[in-house]
């Protein structure tokens, strides 16, 4: 799972409402994050980097430590890939000449796990975190150790900018505020923009009941995420489940009321 894409998942909905189970500030519990579905696939071979699982796929970008243009991606238009050593690779992303994210991946000596650290600059404050992925399939013979199929099995760190969100629900609307991104949407089936989101995402909201809200995210006219927010009866926790339609992955996590 693209780390910059993961950071965008936590920058989903937020709000503070009175007399609603959603009202207030919430923080994601890092140890609760679970990822299932299709693996992330990376290939570094022959001096180039490819990501078949990315949306759209990244194909044979030179892994030479220089900036290279890429097209079709909502959150970056330039990519820099630098092979540090036989087990480590650094990735940097820019959009319109501005740095938007960094990610360093390092494969363990046995080749079966990968640890990563990332920073996203897509919000008002840098969002940072670290994670671990387990190998699902090997890469091509002779390719860099990062090559192959991976699925996240642990999120070990995330700063407040990444995991904090505010929600507010009224009888006919729902609001979210998180690290400089926000929306205020009615339960009317109309699309509302996420302000401050460089990917120009729009949302529709459906109120299932007093404790459950369904959010659908659109980008470029296509559904990219289906997010379900379910607040516990005691108002202390909230379960977020994000079906990432574009990548074929589902991310779930527990948020705690502050």
What does this protein structure show overall?
It is a single chain. This protein is globular. The protein contains 2 helices and 21 strands. The strands form 2 sheets. Strands 1, 2, 13, 14, 15, 16, 17, 18, 19, 20 and 21 form an 11-stranded antiparallel sheet that branches. The chain has a 10-stranded antiparallel sheet with strand order 5-4-3-12-11-10-9-8-7-6. It is mainly β. Strand 18 and strand 19 form a beta hairpin. It has 2 domains: 123 residues, Lipocalin, CATH 2.40.128; 124 residues, no CATH class. The N terminus is likely disordered.
Question: How far is it from the N-terminal to the C-terminal residue, by CA?
Answer: 28 Å
Main sheet record: 11 strands, antiparallel
Q: How many individual β-strands?
A: 21
| Average of per-residue pLDDT values | 93
Share in helix: under 10%
H-E order: HEEEEEEEEEEEEHEEEEEEEEE
| SS element count, helices | 2
Please state the structural category. Answer: mainly beta
Rg, alpha carbons: 18 Å
Strand content: over 45%
Low-confidence stretches: 1-18
Shape: globular
- What is the count of distinct domains? 2
């Amino acid at each position: 799972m693209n780390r910059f894409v993961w950071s965008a998942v936590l920058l989903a909905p937020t709000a503070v409402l009175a007399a609603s189970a959603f009202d207030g500030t919430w923080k994601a519990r890092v140890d609760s994050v679970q990822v299932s579905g299709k693996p992330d696939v990376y290939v570094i071979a022959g001096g180039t980097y490819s990501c078949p699982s990315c949306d759209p796929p990244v194909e044979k970008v030179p892994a030479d430590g220089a900036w290279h243009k890429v097209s079709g991606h909502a959150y970056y238009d330039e990519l820099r890939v630098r092979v540090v050593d036989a087990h480590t690779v650094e990735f940097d992303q820019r959009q319109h000449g501005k740095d938007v994210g960094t990610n360093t991946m390092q494969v363990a000596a046995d080749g079966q796990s990968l640890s990563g650290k990332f920073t996203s600059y897509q919000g008002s404050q840098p969002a940072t975190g670290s994670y671990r992925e387990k190998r699902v399939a090997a890469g091509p013979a002779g390719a860099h150790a990062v090559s192959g199929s991976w699925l996240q099995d642990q999120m070990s760190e995330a700063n407040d900018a990444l995991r904090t969100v505010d929600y507010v629900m009224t009888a006919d609307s729902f609001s979210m505020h998180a690290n400089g991104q926000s929306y205020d949407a009615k339960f009317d089936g109309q699309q509302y923009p996420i302000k401050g989101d460089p990917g120009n995402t729009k949302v529709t909201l459906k109120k299932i009941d007093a404790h459950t809200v369904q959010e659908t995210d659109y980008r470029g006219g296509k559904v990219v995420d289906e997010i379900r927010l379910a607040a516990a009866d005691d108002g202390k926790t909230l379960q977020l489940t994000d079906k990432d339609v574009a990548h074929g992955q589902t991310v779930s996590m527990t948020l705690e009321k502050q």
